[in-house]
Write a structure and sequence with these properties.
By secondary structure, the chain is of the alpha+beta class. The protein is built from 9 helices and 10 strands. β5 and β6 (149-150) form a beta hairpin.
Length: 293
């Protein structure tokens, strides 16, 4: 309150000076009452601005430590590990992946155990079932909701928060897309399906310009699925670069084929429903092939 107490009297002083401008004109350096009035109003506006709290809003719009500027800068040379739906806990991964940060029934909703063994996979999916969610998924160490509430920093640090917000306590991060690049320059796209490695509060790295926090996996800052691993030819622990990307900028690929959470699949279903409702025989087959249920 100290700053407010010093500012408010200033407002009264400015108002008093403005009201008595004519009387003080003879003693004032201002040539006219209009000049004095303008000065008094500037003084008042300056005092009002000081009452407003200063708020620091982190942004990714300026060049950062990892890459080039823009709305979604690249995070370059990030230690990347592999995880999968149904993974059991290990010393370096103490949290089992039978559930995700946003899905308590992740294994069932995915359709089963996303076996990472290459011998038990075909065309980037498990050999014994068709996933009901996008097999190209990833985890980053931030969750924008906790115990059903939106975190207070989320509206300030998440670049797409305003456009994606639906209701309090509902994540705007789940199912967002990123582009991942290996050291050969090959790129892959995946959807955000869980939080980690290890942390769920590291917005300074995920949306800012900080390094990932140190952890048991050599400071790993990105977990990717077996499908991403296979497409990019990654090992169990590798180095990649990544950045967020909006869905309209994601090109078709094997990441566009499967999943009830997949924007490509959902878009294809909506288009099919519109065609059926119109009885239109002129269907547009230019989009990617998707697997729907």
């Amino acid at each position: 309150m100290r700053a407010l107490n010093t500012i408010v009297p200033g407002l009264f002083v400015a108002s008093a000076l403005l009201a008595s401008g004519t009387c003080l004109r003879a003693q004032s350096p201002y040539e006219s009452s209009e000049d004095f009035a303008r000065y008094a109003m500037k003084l008042r506006e300056s005092a009002l601005l000081k009452i407003e709290p200063e708020v620091f809003v982190p942004t990714t719009s300026s060049p950062g430590l990892y890459g080039f500027g823009g709305r979604y800068p690249w995070k370059v040379d990030i230690v990347t590990t592999v995880f999968w739906v149904g993974e059991k806990p290990t010393p370096n991964n103490p949290v089992p992946n039978t559930r995700s940060a946003w899905d308590l029934n992740w294994v069932a909703d995915y359709g089963g155990y996303d076996d990472p063994d290459p011998n038990n996979r075909r065309s980037y999916i498990p050999a014994n079932f068709t996933p009901r969610q996008n097999p190209f998924y990833f985890a980053l160490p931030y969750n924008d909701v906790t115990t059903g509430t939106t975190k207070p920093e989320a509206p300030m640090v998440i670049p797409w928060f305003r456009e994606a917000y639906r209701k309090y306590g509902q994540s705007v991060c789940q199912n967002r897309w990123i582009e991942i690049r290996n050291h050969f320059g090959q790129t892959c796209y995946a959807q955000w399906s869980d939080c980690g490695p290890f942390r769920t509060d590291d917005w300074q790295y995920v949306f800012g310009n900080e390094l990932p926090e140190p952890n048991l996996n050599h400071g790993a800052g990105l977990d990717v699925s077996p499908a991403v691993r296979d497409f990019l030819g990654l090992s169990g622990m590798d180095v990649t670069s990544w950045r967020f990307v909006d869905y309209p900028a994601v090109p078709p690929g094997p990441w566009s084929y499967y999943g009830d959470n997949n924007d490509f699949v959902l878009s294809a279903r909506r288009n099919t429903e519109r065609v059926v409702s119109r009885g239109d025989d002129d269907q547009d087959d230019s989009g990617p092939t998707v697997i729907t249920r």
